[in-house]
Design a protein that fits this description.
Blueprint lengths: L1 H14 L6 H12 L4 H8 L8 H35 L19 H15 L3 E2 L5 E3 H4 L10 H5 L22 E3 L5 H9 L4 E10 L11 E11 L4 H16 L4 E9 L2 E10 L11 E9 L1 H6 L8 E8 H9 L12 H4 L4
Parallel strand pairs: 1-4
Antiparallel strand pairs: 2-3, 4-5, 5-9, 6-7, 7-8, 8-9
The structure holds 3,4-dihydroxyphenylalanine.
């Protein structure tokens, strides 16, 4: 048996260097290892041996089998490499490192967005999203900003033509489609879709008809937060936002809530912070976001019982936070796609 196996191996090793395609290899392999193959025949003949000789014979066959399999694998590898070389042409050596080692990175605004989202995810917030095109109802009315409210003037938007219909977005009344002016729309859409407890963070792009200058841009990004449950208090809001500010701006940061007004929260506040860790970047109190306790009127518009549930909400501009953290003094740099600017945050 040993000689039989040796001669099969010998034949295989002689033949294999002349095989040039995968198909040839497969055909030839079948004549050795296939059901009618020479090696298979030897295996079958093992049954005629006395029982005590079978284990030793099996071992020999296995060794021989792995030896021919190695030969076939080697030739397949050789064929792969030569096919690749033909495809790539003579001037390319695929084993050399890439000639352009520069990797793309996230845009600085996306970097800050990711950091904030991660931070809130770790304390139980899930990401919610809604569309950039909205109806006036979701952008304003449902948030307790009626048509004649002055807050509406401060958030002038871009309106879509009346004759246009937006798929899957019905109008409540005689109203217009617009580009959302804030991510607070996600509060309403989320509360209509799911019932408390709700704990979401909603990053997204917003639009306003502002004249661009160093701190204003017609398109910008916000992150909205909303927490609704039984017994949610102002203390919960303050604790969460303190944790956020200290994680982002430094552990020694101080915060303060300044009374303010937003139609969809009552009471409402602006949150300011001061962080010695940021040195010159923050040597005075800086306003960082609007926040407050969800106004009962908002709960009514989404059919949540304000006698049972309370909640807090907050909204911040991502650019504002990026500008502070990255020491950028003009918001317009973020949108110019100037590689010299972007590279500084790679
Ligand atoms: N939507 C407000 C704006 O764009 C920001 C804001 C303020 C969001 C207070 C909130 C909030 O959720 O509670 O000016």
């Amino acid at each position: 048996m040993q000689t039989e196996l040796d001669s099969i191996i010998e034949v295989v090793y002689e033949k294999v260097p002349y095989l040039t395609t995968r198909a040839e290899v497969e055909l030839y392999k079948a004549t050795i290892l296939g059901p009618k193959g020479t090696m298979t025949a030897v295996m079958k003949s093992m049954g005629q041996l006395p029982k005590e000789e079978r284990p030793a014979a099996g071992k020999l066959i296995n060794q021989a089998k792995s030896s021919v399999i190695t030969a076939f694998n080697d030739v397949l590898q050789r064929i792969d490499a030569s096919e690749m070389a033909t495809r790539l042409g003579p001037s390319i050596d695929p084993s050399l490192p890439s000639p352009d080692p520069d990797r793309g990175t996230l845009h600085p605004i996306s970097q800050v967005r990711e950091e904030i989202v991660q931070l809130f995810s770790r304390i139980g917030f899930t990401v919610a999203e809604a569309t950039e095109v909205e109806t006036e109802y979701y952008c304003f009315d449902a948030l307790n900003i009626p048509a004649d409210h002055p807050a509406r003037d401060m958030q002038d938007s871009y309106y879509l033509p009346d004759q246009l219909t937006v798929a899957n977005m019905s109008k409540h009344a005689d109203e217009k489609y617009l580009l959302r002016t804030h991510t607070s729309t996600v509060q309403i859409r989320t509360m209509l879709e799911s019932k408390p407890p709700i704990r979401i963070i909603a990053p997204g792009r917003c639009f306003r008809r502002d004249t661009p200058d160093a701190t204003h841009s017609a398109n910008f990004h916000q992150i909205e937060g909303l927490y609704v449950d039984e017994n949610v208090s102002l203390l919960d809001l303050k604790a969460t936002l303190d944790h956020f500010v200290r994680s982002i701006f430094g552990s020694k940061a101080k915060t303060r809530l300044r009374p303010s007004f937003f139609p969809f929260t009552e009471p409402s506040f602006e949150m300011d912070f001061y962080s010695p860790d940021l040195g010159k970047l923050s040597n005075k109190w800086l306003e960082i976001m609007g926040c407050g306790m969800v106004d009962p009127e908002v709960f009514k518009s989404v059919d949540i019982n304000p006698d049972r549930f309370t909640g807090y909400a907050f909204g911040m501009g991502i650019e504002r936070i990026s500008m502070i953290l990255q020491g950028v003094d003009d918001i317009r740099y973020y949108y110019q796609n100037d590689i010299r600017f972007l590279k500084q945050f790679a």
